[in-house]
Amino acid sequence: MVAELNALRDQIDEVDKALLDLLSRRLNLVAEVGEVKSRYGLPIYVPEREAAMLASRRQEAQQLGVPPDLIEDVLRRVMRESYSSENDKGFKTLRPELRSIVIVGGRGQMGRLFTRMLELSGYQVNVLEQEDWSQAEALLSDAGMVIVSVPIHLTEEVISQLPKLPDDCILVDLASVKNRPLQAMLAVHEGPVLGLHPMFGPDVGSLAKQVVVYCDGREPQAYQWLLEQLQVWGARLHKISAVEHDQSMAFIQALRHFATFAYGLHLCEENVQIEQLLALSSPIYRLELAMVGRLFAQDPQLYADIIMSSESNLALIKRYYQRFGDALALLENGDKQAFISKFKQVESWFGDYAPRFLKESGSLLRQANDNRR
């Protein structure tokens, strides 16, 4: 039995080595693709090409008796690595005549990311930090674009202190709230103004598939090239008004982060044993616990700024608190029928999104289970 098993394992090892050789060959081809895309200014992420390729591989897998989900999982992981490696080839400079770009707060994490991406695209980038402010006027006097990348609670103050910029200079901010910073930029600068919100952290390996929200400020034709440059990097753009942006972020960020903060605080105060929770957890709870832990591994000032950025956030959280109390009352009254009725009400409100999210979450849960040790 042992000899038979070892012989089969040896064959599996040989197949694994062949897979490694194929992966190496694929990555080398991706590097060549990256060079072509860089030369011609093509985006590293083309959704139509990716969708068509995955559909073909799934069909071919089924014909070979290989689970289609398996090949898609493998290819998606390989493509994520491929997108990161394509960054190394650089990107075409869409505005080669642009004067220097100054990133205020460029030594911060998001500032460093944008510095890197812009330099990979051939632009000259200078950094302005607090200790350099005495040189701000000289540094900004001939800037082609100024990007403000500072903590939320400092954004409006920093914008208001900017010296006069050249009339054609593009003024951009990267804050996760948009309306007040946008108004501040419009007040201090008479030229092109754009609000950007990168919907990702600074630790991403690639901007492929990452969402960047943008809010028009003034003279959009002047910064159209920048939006196209973001697309060359692989980003997916979403245009929205600054007011609508902040309304949506109240749910996406402020409410969600506060609920996560409160849950983490509750776990801490209850002094639960995390190792025991992990040992007993289902994949979905393990994933939820990981997202809670992720929050507390990051900068508390950032999340305090996001949650406390407006009175409307506080009002929304208070309404959530009220509804939490209403739901708790169902338990106190032992009203199972009312609970089921409310459950069905929410299910109806989700509509077709509920089964769609059930399917999407399945792949995440399988991956969470794969990572179990």
TrEMBL record:
Identify the pathway.
Amino-acid biosynthesis; L-tyrosine biosynthesis; (4-hydroxyphenyl)pyruvate from prephenate (NAD(+) route): step 1/1; Metabolic intermediate biosynthesis; prephenate biosynthesis; prephenate from chorismate: step 1/1
Q: Which key words are in the record?
A: Amino-acid biosynthesis, Aromatic amino acid biosynthesis, Cytoplasm, Isomerase, NAD, Oxidoreductase, Tyrosine biosynthesis
Pfam family of the protein (one): PDH_N
* InterPro entries, per the entry: 6-PGluconate_DH-like_C_sf (IPR008927), Chor_mut/prephenate_DH_T (IPR008244), Chorismate_II_sf (IPR036263), CM_dom_sf (IPR036979), CM_II_prokaryot (IPR002701), CM_T (IPR011277), NAD(P)-bd_dom_sf (IPR036291), PDH_C (IPR046825)
Instruction: Spell out the SUPFAM superfamilies in the cross-references.
Output: 6-phosphogluconate dehydrogenase C-terminal domain-like, Chorismate mutase II, NAD(P)-binding Rossmann-fold domains
Provide the protein's localization.
Answer: Cytoplasm
Record-annotated Chorismate mutase domain positions: 1-90
* Domain Prephenate/arogenate dehydrogenase intervals: 99-361
Extract the PANTHER family matched here.
Answer: PREPHENATE DEHYDROGENASE, PREPHENATE DEHYDROGENASE [NADP(+)]
- What is the official name of this protein in its record? T-protein
Biological source species = Hafnia psychrotolerans
